[in-house]
Amino acid sequence: MGAVLALAGAAGVDRDFAGAPVAATFYPAALADKLAGMDLFPPGDDVGAEFNSSIGTTCTLAVDWYYGLDASPGFGEVDFVTTVLHELGHGLGFATFVDDTTGEKFLGFDDVFMLQLEDHSTGELWPDMSDAERVTSSTDPGDLHWVGAEVVAASGSLSDGVHASGHVEMFAPSTLDPGSSVSHFSDDLDPDGLMEPFETGALHDVGLALELFADLDWCICGNGVVEPPELCDDGNSIDDDFCSNACQGPPVPMLPVWGRVAGALLLLSTGIVLLGQHPRRVRP
Ligand SMILES: [Ca+2]
Ligand SMILES: [Ca+2]
Ligand SMILES: [Ca+2]
Ligand SMILES: [Ca+2]
Ligand SMILES: [Zn+2]
Ligand SMILES: [Zn+2]
Predict the structure, then answer these.
(1) Spatial separation of the C-alpha atoms in residues 250 and 248, rounded to whole Å
(2) What ipTM was reported for this prediction?
(3) Residues 6+ apart with CB under 8 A from 116
(4) Any idea which of 82-96, 190-204, 223-237 has the lowest mean pLDDT?
(5) What integer pLDDT is reported at residue 276 of this predicted model?
(6) How far apart are CA 170 and CA 212, in angstroms?
(7) What band does 96 get if pLDDT is binned at 50, 70 and 90?
(8) Ligand 4 centroid vs 204 CA: distance in angstroms?
């Protein structure tokens, strides 16, 4: 097993909040806040991430961090910016909350990530499967797919790791890799993706992960489509034009959007517990 570079996850989850697109389904804290238009749990962190400080300080580890911002790590160096982007991806929702050894749903509820996971050979989606079927599906290389419409529509950019249907393969090695299986794209993706489980060099373009976030109902500022709570989206990344990179239009003060907190709101944010720890490693 290669050295663990970093791990991260949502620091809390919410379900059935005002504005939740799908009922009885857990959302990672950051996404729940975004969809609710408010901070649902101000005392709690949304994302927890840890980065391995032994990298570069331990002679037995033959790698070092590259802290430059230009995506040009030298031989034996791992790009820190890429690692941060990858870990933030987990924190923003690129992870299931299903128990990967038992297949049980987290506290008995679906999570937004598993809604798009498919066992291709049976055609079943994860929410509809038994615990045992989910365990089997997570150790079925090439057969565990992401079927979200945005990813499928963009999957033509892949020459490997993609099924003829446009479904994209998720990481499902025949021996479970705890915390890593399911919650990554397959390492078979070509070109390499930011959200593959193993370090693949400097990648500052989030690639297909952006479409996966759109499938989770993150709105994407810069995709040319106005999605609430965006006030505009001019499809570019120019910040000082009439539509800023926050998609809130020209500098007009925005009224706060206070949603009603549903009675069923469940807050588990502790700032300590990471839901799953999704390690990224140097390839063994
Ligand atoms: Ca299967
Ligand atoms: Ca790859
Ligand atoms: Ca948009
Ligand atoms: Ca702009
Ligand atoms: Zn499929
Ligand atoms: Zn990861």
Answers:
(1) 7
(2) 0.83
(3) 125, 146, 147, 148, 151, 215
(4) 223-237
(5) 54
(6) 12
(7) very high
(8) 20
- Within-domain flag for 160: yes
Total number of domains constituting the chain: 1
Structural domain boundaries, residue 121: 42-218
Question: How do residues 50-78 score in pLDDT, each as one tens digit?
Answer: 998 888 887 777 788 999 999 999 998 99
User: What is the predicted pLDDT for the residue at 206?
Assistant: 92
Q: What is the mean pLDDT of residues 110-132?
A: 98
Measured between alpha carbons, how far is 196 from 198 in angstroms, rounded to an integer?
A: 6
Q: How far apart are the first and last CA of the chain?
A: 5
Q: Please name which ligand lies nearest the alpha carbon of 210.
A: 3
Which residues surround the ion ligand 5 when the cut-off is CB under 5 Å? 118, 120, 145, 167
Which ligand has an atom closest to residue 280 CA? 6
* Alpha carbon of 16 to ligand 3 centroid (Å): 24
In a domain, 139, yes or no: yes
Q: What pLDDT is recorded for position 147? A: 98
How far is the centre of ligand 2, averaged over its atoms, from the C-alpha of 187 (Å)?
A: 4
Whether 176 is covered by a domain: the verdict is: yes
Does residue 94 lie within any of the structural domains?
yes
Per-residue pLDDT at 124: 98
